[in-house]
Design the sequence.
């Protein structure tokens, strides 16, 4: 029996029962899906609560508002937060026989999250590593993403199963955007993320320093009340691109709670401009060379 990942005759054990031979042996289906996605950006951090989901959601929204076709995949299986950030809670993806349609946020942005498949979002999900790995692969290959300019992935904190299997599923062309806060303790965790990405065989696209300074609602300026710049120093030390600083901004937290992504409503503020600077080099990425 040949290896099979998803032809019509696939068996639950991963074999193929087709008498005429498997029509989609091995990872052909996955490769087909990946071949339709130009750029894969995986947002991660060694540290929890630094703003990965906020950054991932706003990158995806900003790219889509720039006219790009974007998919946003939430692989945080224990605490999916993308449905709330984009006001998509309670949505259900349309299910086909062997495929799922992502949930549309707009014409240009489609979203997939385990949060859409759970009956109750307070349900605790206890899954062992191999199940998570299988789920992430399915979220890439069984979701009808179609032709995408960007697939943005929001990872849970750390360097565990989810970021590992995300990078392995997406392959060596996927690039990591690592998020940190300016504080030293976060920086140490982030240093680990940077070396993790290299060990898996992927590239770091760049580092984002979030919650850096305070965007003052009174004067509209950014005040550096705490240390800022730790992320920039780390980027220099690690030899990765520094993408920019996003200030602590009450409007970011508020728009997340309300489910109106910041980049849709506050693009012209100091924080919006900072986010746009981070996204600019992503928009400048050249199209991948297609080999026949
Ligand atoms: N620049 C910012 N200014 C103000 N609040 C922010 C900013 N970035 C993130 N937050 C807030 O910080 C909290 C944590 O953000 P978020 O959920 O994006 O972090 P995370 O790194 O994805 O967390 P987790 O590790 O749990 O997945 C949220 O309440 C969010 O609104
Ligand atoms: Mg998160
Ligand atoms: Zn001020």
Sequence:
């Amino acid at each position: 029996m040949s290896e099979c990942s998803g032809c019509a005759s696939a068996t639950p054990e991963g074999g193929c029962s087709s008498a005429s031979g498997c029509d989609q042996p091995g990872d052909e289906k996955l490769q087909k899906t990946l071949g339709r996605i130009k750029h894969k950006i995986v947002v991660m951090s060694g540290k929890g609560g630094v703003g990965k989901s906020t950054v991932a959601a706003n990158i995806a929204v900003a790219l889509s508002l720039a006219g790009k076709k974007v998919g946003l995949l939430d692989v945080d299986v224990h605490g999916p937060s993308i449905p709330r950030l984009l006001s998509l809670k309670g949505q259900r993806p349309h299910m086909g026989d062997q495929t799922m349609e992502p949930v549309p946020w707009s014409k240009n942005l489609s979203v997939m999250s385990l949060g859409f498949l759970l009956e109750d979002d307070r349900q605790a999900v206890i899954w062992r590593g191999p199940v998570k790995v299988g789920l992430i692969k399915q979220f890439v290959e069984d979701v009808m993403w179609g032709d995408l300019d960007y697939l943005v992935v929001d990872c849970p904190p750390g360097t565990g199963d989810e970021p590992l299997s995300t990078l392995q599923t997406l392959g060596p062309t996927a690039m990591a955007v690592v998020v940190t806060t300016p504080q030293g303790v976060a920086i140490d965790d982030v240093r680990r993320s940077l070396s993790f990405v290299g060990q898996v065989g992927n590239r770091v696209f760049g580092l984002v320093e979030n919650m850096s300074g305070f965007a003052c609602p009174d004067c509209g300026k950014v005040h550096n009340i705490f240390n800022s710049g730790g992320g920039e120093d780390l980027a220099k030390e690690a030899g990765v691109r520094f993408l920019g600083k996003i200030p602590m901004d009450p409007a970011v937290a508020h728009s997340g709670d309300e489910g109106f992504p910041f980049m849709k409503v506050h693009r012209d503020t100091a924080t919006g401009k900072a986010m746009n600077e981070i996204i600019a080099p992503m928009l400048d990425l050249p199209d991948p060379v297609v080999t026949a």
Summary: The two ends are 29 Å apart (CA to CA). The CA atoms of residues 140 and 260 lie 26 Å apart.
